[in-house]
Design brief:
The structure is a homodimer of 261-residue chains. The first copy, chain A, has helices spanning 8-16, 44-53, 122-127, 133-136, 169-180, 228-236; strands at 31-40, 60-63, 87-91, 94-99, 110-116, 143-149, 159-167, 191-192, 219-224, 240-244, 250-255. Chain A contains six helices and eleven strands. Chain A folds into two domains: 3-117 and 233-260, PSTPO5379-like; 119-224, 2-Layer Sandwich (PSTPO5379-like fold). In chain A, strand 3 and strand 4 (94-99) form a beta hairpin. The interface between A and B is medium-sized, with 13 and 13 residues. Chains A, B: It holds the Pfam family D-Glu_cyclase. Chains A, B: GO terms for molecular function: lyase activity.
Chain lengths: 261, 261
């Protein structure tokens, strides 16, 4: 079975049945993927404000009504508690477990934030002959904590997390133009070139995901990443928060092209 | 004194001193202008969610911290309670007065939402030889209630308000391309042509602002408008809400070009 030929609806079904539990880069090219943060309603205003103030790392695609597991925009038949391949549960900033469903943890006061994901623009990069190394190498994308501060909002503060794709300088120009058109899935790169300028010590030791090969003559290109909220949660230590596992996204019915308008 | 040569900071000073109390279309071309809605914190989450779900009519430029009259992004020296030329105070959905300052009404639980304004893209239209009729005729832009429903969020629901600029079909194409690049100030038109299709009966009787001349061979072109929150407030009737008077905007230090990124 070639997963890449499946529709988003078919992939979500396989994910809900726990037949797909891995990372989702390269699945359903052309369709927007989404990161997740679930918080109790008490913290929802502060986080919604945080996303408004940090649209590059936290571009909101949809926010659910309190207690609802349904979506109305990204898909009509989704269950937020079961349709990500893998979730992480955080208590007081500590990850206490990874789960393929969070059905048992569900609370009536949960609000779910679905946040744009850079996997969404990879189909556009491939179309323009810009390589996407982690797809070539069948890995999860490398992600790094940076020293770039987010703008605080209420209780939330912390630094930006970035994803990295290596490419030549010419490809980086194309990649900036292509992704700059897609602000809802993180938009243009936040940095190109020297990792140390944004506080990354070793490209071969990502904080999330897996290291990929950087070839001779390639530059690392960094995009704001929807794992930023997890970094913030680890920093702020709210009583309870649930996220997706990095790289393990929700696959929506919305085409990336539709996110431009 | 030619107001159009003044910097945003100079214009805000004149507004604060109540030397400018009129509408702001055409002032400080190239700089973003902003609509206003102030609500007590209790309603702020529902409204912030409303803006997330209705980004075309309510593109958020900045949200203040509770109780603060200061801005951090749109300007460094602003006072939200005095730097709009005119405000409207609504109690239970009824406008109870228009004021050039809301200093006396200020409450520690106020949250201010600054929302993008279509005046911001008019400099770009003029540059491309697209006429902006209300500037030519020294009037406030005509604004209309439509039958286009906003997506509800919590207590907030209601229909979109639009602004209208008449132009030829060829100019409308240019206008769509130019404004489509500026989603933070309402983006592309929501309708071109027949007003009755969006529930507008008579172009010569706008619900807000003033009627302008529509010449032979011109089409009315409609953009989502930041007066939409006022329509929503009149519909939902919260205990207390404060807005700008339609057309009487905040002039920011942010160039429109900077809003693209």
């Amino acid at each position: 079975m070639d997963d890449r030929k499946l529709t988003p609806k078919e992939v979500r079904k396989l994910i809900r049945e726990e037949k797909i539990t891995g990372q989702t880069s390269g699945l359903c090219p052309g369709y927007a993927q989404a990161n997740l943060l679930i918080l109790p309603k008490d913290q929802a205003y502060d986080f919604l404000l945080f996303t408004q103030r940090n649209p590059r790392s936290c571009p909101i695609l949809e926010v659910t009504d309190m207690g609802s597991r349904q979506l109305h925009y990204l898909a009509q038949d989704a269950d937020v508690a079961r349709d990500f391949p893998k979730y992480r549960v955080y208590r007081k900033g500590e990850m206490v477990g990874e789960y393929t469903s969070i059905d048992r943890f569900w609370q009536d006061n949960f609000v779910s934030f679905l946040i744009g994901c850079s996997f969404s623009f990879e189909a556009g990069l491939l179309e323009a002959d810009v390589p996407v190394r982690q797809i070539e190498e069948h890995k999860n994308v490398p992600m790094y904590k940076t020293n770039i501060p987010c703008t605080p909002a209420g209780i939330f503060h912390g630094n930006m997390v970035v994803s990295m794709r290596p490419m030549t300088g010419e490809q980086a120009v194309k990649a900036a133009c292509i992704t700059g058109e897609m602000p809802k899935v993180h938009g243009a790169p936040v940095h190109i070139g020297d990792p140390s300028q944004i506080g990354i010590r070793d490209l071969q030791k990502p904080d999330f995901g897996e290291a990929v090969t950087v070839k001779e003559g390639e530059l690392p290109v960094f995009w704001p990443c929807g794992v930023t909220p997890q970094n913030v949660v680890m920093e702020v230590k709210p009583e309870l928060a649930i996220t997706h596992a990095p790289g393990h996204m929700f696959i929506s019915d919305i085409k990336n092209a539709a996110l431009k308008y």
